[in-house]
């Protein structure tokens, strides 16, 4: 029995801020971010957008592509590091809004930027085990970087949703193999009650992201006997434009393989939405038979890797909801730092 | 809005659940008990398509306390493609772009929150529909 993606959808807030606009405020060197990290701009959520609202819109797009009755969704998993509540699940609101309740299992996942692929992984596993008919996994974030910190140039907002199922006639892409690679790595964290995360500076690169991503993909290639050349597309977690390019090079993947799914220069790092959103952009253009590799990364640290093979229904299904590159351009509005600071609640208001 | 009150209206707020009169077909949002066209009392519930157009609109510059951080914002009466009309904020658009007859779609958004510690209320707001 082949199990895989029978519906996928994306959602991206319409506001953007350019790297120059942030650099101007902090006296930083914009060209070094643009050239050094290959970041041009990032998405900014409105005051009324959060992980729940972005997840609902992405999930509705996934449902439109799946064409199934939402009552048949047996699990809703939301992966995020910016759940709106500390205590009260995001998943139940999303499940209610798409009509999947009450006969449905919900859980919220947290694992820095890896939470989205966890939801996909668990939803896939439950469908494969025969415990549920369909499972929804969403990666969504409205992440914050401390003002002036390097992360402020990349921390963005967006969501990607995937409905897993086993119906051959609905299959958009089968999941052929998975692999996971985890170690305790202190590269990025946020303690309870802290508004902004902390990170290990340069430590986030070599021993964290690159070790984990290359370890995970190498493990998957060993497990499957596949080679980089066997994939038409590869999507790596993309905290900036440079990291996925370097990871690809270290692993023997070409720039052409990662280009379609590398959204970060125009979108920023959507954390739990990052590699999942890249996958939606690939599914928007892939041909039946194409093989896709997706590797997430979450600080702390770990990677989930998936091998997908695109099915015949992709061509029809992709037309049933907005495509991701279209969402990147749709009705975009550029904001200045002042409005951005208000939208991201970086301005301290008088107590009422 | 107290949590219990918004909770009771989740089907309308979250899924835009409307009612269609079984006798004459007129649609109502929110659902009602008696049809004002044919006095029919039997309805079927359905979730509206999230598309419609602006019937009338204005800009709110001095809102109630609940929405004070969001002002100024556009509000309009939206005629849904399924028939019923509803009042909604119109967002992600500059005020001079909002026009009578403008096609919109409803997106899931935060409607209000009871300060930093209270419940967050969710529902729909209109955004320009582009294809
Ligand atoms: Zn009637």
Radius of gyration of chain A: 19 Å
Q: What would you say the CATH architecture of the largest domain in chain A is?
A: 3-Layer(aba) Sandwich
Count the domains of chain A.
Answer: 2
Helix segment count of chain B?
2
Q: Count helical runs of chain A.
A: 13
The ordered string of helix (H) and strand (E) elements of chain B is HHEEEEEEEE
Report the oligomer: heterodimer
The CATH superfamily label of the largest domain in chain A reads Thiolase/Chalcone synthase
> Terminal Cα separation of chain B, in Å?
35 Å
For the largest beta-sheet of chain B, the strand count, sense and barrel status come to:
5 strands, antiparallel
Strand order of the largest sheet of chain A: 5-4-6-7-1-8-13-12-11
Any idea of the CATH topology of the largest domain in chain B?
A: OB fold (Dihydrolipoamide Acetyltransferase, E2P)
List the helices and strands of chain A in order: EEHHEHEHEHEEEEEHEHHHHEEHHEH
| Greatest interface by residues involved | A-B, 23 and 23 residues
Helix content of chain A: 25-40%
Beta-strand residue percentage of chain A: 15-25%
Please, could you describe this protein's structure?
The complex is a heterodimer of chains A (352) and B (131). Chain A is an alpha/beta fold and 352 residues long. Chain A folds into two domains: 4-172 and 324-343, Thiolase/Chalcone synthase (Peroxisomal Thiolase, Chain A, domain 1); 175-314, Thiolase/Chalcone synthase (Peroxisomal Thiolase, Chain A, domain 1, 3-Layer(aba) Sandwich). Chain A contains 13 helices and 14 strands. In chain A, the strands form three sheets. Chain A has a nine-stranded mixed beta sheet with strand order 5-4-6-7-1-8-13-12-11, with helices on both faces. In chain A, strands 3-2-14 form a three-stranded mixed beta sheet. Chain A is globular and about 55 Å long. By secondary structure, chain B is mostly beta strands. Chain B folds into two domains: 1-48; 49-131, Beta Barrel (OB fold (Dihydrolipoamide Acetyltransferase, E2P)). Chain B is built from two helices and eight strands. Chain B is globular and about 45 Å long. The model of chain B has no long low-confidence stretch (mean pLDDT 93). The chains are: A alpha/beta (352), B mainly beta (131). Zinc ion (ZN) binds at residues 21, 23-24, 26, 35, 37-38, 40 of chain B.
């Amino acid at each position: 029995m082949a199990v895989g993606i029978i519906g996928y959808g994306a959602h991206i807030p319409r506001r953007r801020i350019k790297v120059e606009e942030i650099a101007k405020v902090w006296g930083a060197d914009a060209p070094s971010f643009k050239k050094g990290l290959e970041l041009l701009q990032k998405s900014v959520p409105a005051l009324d957008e959060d992980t729940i609202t972005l997840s609902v819109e992405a999930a509705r797009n996934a449902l439109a592509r799946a064409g199934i009755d939402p009552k048949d969704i047996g699990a809703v998993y939301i992966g995020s590091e910016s759940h709106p509540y500390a205590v009260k699940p995001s998943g139940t609101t999303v499940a209610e809004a798409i009509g999947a309740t009450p006969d449905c299992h919900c859980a919220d996942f947290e694992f820095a930027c890896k939470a989205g692929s966890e939801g996909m992984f668990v939803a896939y596993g439950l469908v494969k085990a025969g415990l549920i008919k369909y499972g929804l996994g969403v990666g969504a974030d409205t992440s914050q970087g401390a003002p002036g910190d390097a992360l402020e140039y990349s921390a963005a907002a967006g969501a990607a949703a995937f409905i897993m199922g086993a119906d051959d006639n609905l299959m958009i892409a089968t999941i052929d193999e998975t692999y996971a690679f985890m170690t305790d790595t202190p590269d990025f964290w946020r303690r309870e009650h802290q508004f902004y995360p902390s990170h290990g500076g340069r430590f986030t690169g070599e021993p964290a992201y690159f070790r984990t991503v290359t370890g995970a993909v190498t493990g998957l290639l060993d497990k499957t006997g596949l080679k980089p050349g066997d994939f038409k597309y590869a999507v790596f977690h993309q905290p900036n434009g440079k990291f996925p390019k370097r990871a690809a090079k270290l692993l023997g993947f070409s720039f052409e393989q990662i280009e379609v799914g590398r959204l970060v220069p125009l979108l920023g790092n959507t954390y739990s939405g990052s590699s999942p959103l890249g996958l939606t952009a690939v599914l928007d253009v892939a041909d039946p038979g194409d093989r896709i590799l997706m590797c997430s990364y979450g600080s702390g640290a770990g990677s989930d890797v998936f091998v997908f093979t695109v099915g015949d229904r992709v061509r029809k299904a992709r037309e049933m909801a907005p495509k991701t590159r279209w969402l990147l351009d749709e009705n975009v509005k550029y904001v200045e730092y002042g409005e951005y600071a208000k939208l991201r609640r970086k301005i301290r208001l008088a107590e009422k | 809005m107290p949590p219990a009150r918004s909770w009771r209206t989740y089907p309308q707020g979250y899924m835009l659940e409307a009612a269609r009169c079984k006798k004459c077909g007129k649609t109502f949002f929110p659902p009602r008990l008696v049809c004002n066209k044919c006095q029919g009392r039997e309805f079927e519930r359905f979730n509206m398509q999230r598309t419609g157009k602006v019937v009338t609109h204005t800009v709110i510059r001095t809102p109630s306390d609940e929405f004070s951080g969001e002002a100024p914002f556009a509000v309009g009466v939206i005629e849904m493609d399924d028939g019923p009309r509803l009042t909604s904020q119109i967002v992600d658009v500059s005020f001079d772009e909002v026009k009578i007859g403008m096609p919109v779609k409803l997106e899931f958004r935060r409607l209000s929150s009871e300060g930093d510690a209270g419940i967050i209320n969710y529902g729909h707001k209109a955004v320009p529909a582009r294809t």
